[in-house]
Amino acid sequence: MCHKLRNKFLTKWYGFKGKNIRFRFHLDIHRGQDISVGDDVFIDDYAEFYVVGGKLEIGNRVVIGKMNRIGCQNHIIIEDDVIMAPHVHITDRDHEFRDINTSILKQGMRFKGPTIIGRETWIGMFAQVMAGVKVGKHCVIGAGCIVTKDIPDYCVVVGNPAKIIRKYDEIKSEWVKVND
Question: Would you tell me how many other CB atoms lie within 10 Å of the CB of residue 38?
């Protein structure tokens, strides 16, 4: 089956409304009816979308890299023009663990609000964006970062946990280092 025909078939199969959605191979999409996908989106090999009772919103011109995993049980928003390198993980939930007399497996999940990736953001390889985090507009999330707290617009973050190392200075019209 040619790529264009396959892409049209999969777009219709999953109920996505966007135009020109391009899929690679070996996808794992659970509950496609709870996923909205914008126009001109690219989803690379082995991407996994697990939506369980929540809503996943993917904007326009989003690139989802190989082996990305998005786990959604509440609400995840990926705004327009976001680029994700391979092996990125995004979630909107954490395992509950407070009751030491009950197995973590049996305690269920907890939510801190929606997880939001701001437009024009780039997320590096092996980065993770954790539950309830809001990443601002035009941010760079360095490779291997674990983002556990909100990131303002126009920031570069690295590390585990992610730490802001640069911000865009509108007065100087340049990226400046952030002092510790």
Answer: 20
- Rounded CA-CA distance 49/114 in Å is 16
pLDDT computed for residue 8 by the predictor: 81
Do the strands 128-129 and 146-147 form a parallel or antiparallel pair, or are they unpaired?
A: parallel
Domain ranges of the chain: 3-177
* pLDDT given at position 32: 74
Residue numbers in the chain where pLDDT is lower than 70: 1-2, 180
* Residues labelled as active-site residues: 95
Nearest to 104 by CA among 113, 114, 94: 94
User: What is the pTM (predicted TM-score) of this model?
Assistant: 0.91
The contacts of residue 5 (CB under 8 Å, 6+ apart) are none
Q: Per CATH, is 3-177 categorized as 3.40.720.10?
A: no
